[in-house]
Design a protein that fits this description.
With 509 residues, the protein is α/β, with parallel strands linked by helices. Helices cover 36% and strands 21% of the residues. The longest helix has 26 residues. It is globular, with a radius of gyration of 24 Å. The N terminus is likely disordered. It binds 6-O-phosphono-beta-D-glucopyranose. The site of 6-O-phosphono-beta-D-glucopyranose (BG6) has 5 residues, from loops.
Length: 509
């Protein structure tokens, strides 16, 4: 997508110095560096990219580059675009070219000296363009940005840009998100801020808008006259892995809902933007998330389920319960699963529930959106063998097995009028070559080319937190956590949430 109109084909990003704060962290090794390599293989970086790691450990430029190379070769080979097989995925020549521009600044994020070294790197780079990517713990976001501002590093001129990329979690509730936005906006303008939600880097997520707004048939049924309800699920089989410390304070609601799940909800529910530009798209998203009904405390409790995984079996293997994981309290009441019912009070969606669920250690990895249609009127079939019209749906599969499938009714061949559910589908792999990617390629490229469409504006983030705040508040009084066995799709109460409305979750897979 482009900020202001047409780009017939992607051109290399302008020369830029990219500062990676938190250079020794997982994000840089696992995702950002492989993504930069893929961009370079696609010819989208030109020759003018310099990558500067910033962190407190001492390491030479050459050792830092070597460490990244070794990691990609051993741990992240499946994420980089190769010449056909993983063994030669990292092209030595191409990597050498990228590595040539890699250097390192050793420094404490809270020390002014670090910023003097950063300023020098920019002066020496031959371009004033700089992107500061904060792949750090969230407590540093405000601190780093304030220091970048005080050091004069965020001042733009007609000749160069200065941009800041902020990872999630952006705040831990509405008040902290508002405070962080205020802190950022003191030292730079909204146009310089790129708040990442990696779900927006996924092709299948971007495609929701493109399919909805380029095929006239979707608009005809995309409203409360024809849609009964919508289900959005992000199921994972992994547990908290090594992130017990982080997860204990965060929990699944904060980790997944105001960001990833609300991005999916916004893509499904937003009105058509006037253009595929950053202002128009983000304006429509802010409107629809702003129209989510703020539940009272009692309604928030009644319309939410919190679960925590107990020991169980995943893929034939026994796995421990959440409370037995490293850095997790033995009596923890942090949720690893949530199911929610939300209502959008606007003309298109009034009366259509959106059921959201996400969790760790569920039966399979599956992120999907199911648009469930109202049944057709039955009267015409009264005198036939058809005893009921089963509900039909459209499933948008975000990952894995990316694609879209309509579940429709058709006549079963034979002399009687009998019906069966059939599938009308599109699998990405049948139409497009699926290249290895991290999902960060488009986001990094868009940031370097100044396209904010796929990044969160301040109001998008705040509206997301505003919509989940009633759940956070209600749970403070009564956390109502319910156990589910690893390998199950949440506690029984998640099924009851829909059964109460005469509905059921679509089976995963
Ligand atoms: C991250 C969360 O933002 O998204 C993780 O912090 C979660 O807990 C991950 O596992 C899921 O991302 P994906 O792309 O695997 O669906």
């Amino acid at each position: 997508m482009t900020a202001n109109g047409k780009k017939s084909k992607a051109e290399p990003a302008p020369p830029t110095t990219l500062f990676l704060f938190g250079a020794h962290g997982d994000l840089v090794k696992r995702l950002l560096m492989p993504a930069l390599y893929n961009l370079s293989r696609d010819g989208l970086l030109g020759n003018g990219l310099r990558i500067v790691g910033v962190d407190h450990n001492a390491i030479s430029d050459a050792d830092f580059a070597k460490k990244l190379e070794d990691f990609i070769r051993t741990e992240a080979a499946s994420k980089v675009k190769g010449k056909g097989n993983a063994d030669n995925a990292l092209d030595p020549q191409l990597w050498a070219q990228l590595a040539n521009g890699i250097s390192y600044v050793e420094g404490d994020f809270l020390d002014d000296g670090t910023y003097a070294d950063i300023a020098k790197k920019i002066t020496d780079s031959g371009t004033g363009n700089a992107v500061f990517y904060l792949a750090t713990a969230p407590r540093f976001f405000g601190e780093v940005v304030q220091r970048l501002g005080s050091a004069g590093l965020l001042t733009e001129t007609d000749d160069h840009f200065r941009r800041v990329v902020i990872e999630k979690p952006f705040g831990s509730d509405l008040a902290t998100a508002e405070a962080l936005n205020a802190c950022l906006l003191k030292v730079m303008s909204e146009k310089q801020i790129y708040r990442i939600d990696h779900y927006l880097g996924k092709e299948t997520v971007q495609n929701i808008l493109i399919s909805r707004f380029s095929n006239v048939l979707f608009e005809a049924f995309w409203n409360n006259h024809y849609i009964d309800h919508v289900q959005i699920t992000a199921a994972e089989t992994v547990g908290v892995e090594t992130r017990g410390n982080f997860f204990e304070k965060t929990g699944t609601l904060r980790d997944m809902v105001p960001n990833h799940l609300f991005q999916l909800l916004a893509m499904v529910a937003m009105e058509p933007p006037a253009a595929f530009g950053a202002d128009a798209v983000r304006g429509e998203k802010a409107k629809v998330i702003g129209a989510v009904r703020p539940w009272s405390a009692a309604d928030a409790r009644a319309n939410s389920v919190r679960g925590q995984y107990a020991a169980g079996e995943i893929g034939g293997k026994q796995v421990p319960g959440y409370r037995e994981e490293a850095n997790v309290a033995p009596d923890s009441s942090t949720e690893t699963f949530v199911a929610l019912k939300v209502m959008i009070d606007n003309w298109r969606w009034v009366g259509v529930p959106f059921y959201l669920r996400t969790g760790k250690r569920m039966s399979i990895r599956d992120t999907e959106i199911v648009i469930c249609f109202k049944p057709a009127p039955y009267a015409q079939f009264r005198d036939t063998e058809v005893s009921e019209l089963k509900p039909t749906f459209l499933k948008i599969q975000i990952q894995p097995n990316e694609g879209m499938w309509f579940d429709l009714l058709a006549k079963r061949p034979g002399p009687t009028l009998d019906m069966a559910n059939i599938e009308l589908g599109f699998a990405y792999e049948d139409f497009f070559e699926m290249q290895p990617s991290t999902g960060y390629e488009t986001l990094i490229y868009d940031c370097m080319t100044g396209d904010q469409t796929l990044f969160q504006r301040a109001d998008n983030i705040e509206n997301g937190w505003r919509a989940v705040q009633p759940f956070l508040d209600a749970w403070k009084e009564d956390d109502g956590i319910q156990a589910y066995k690893a390998g199950e799709d949440g506690p029984a109460a998640a099924d009851a949430l829909l059964a109460r409305d005469g509905r059921a979750w679509h089976s995963l897979g």
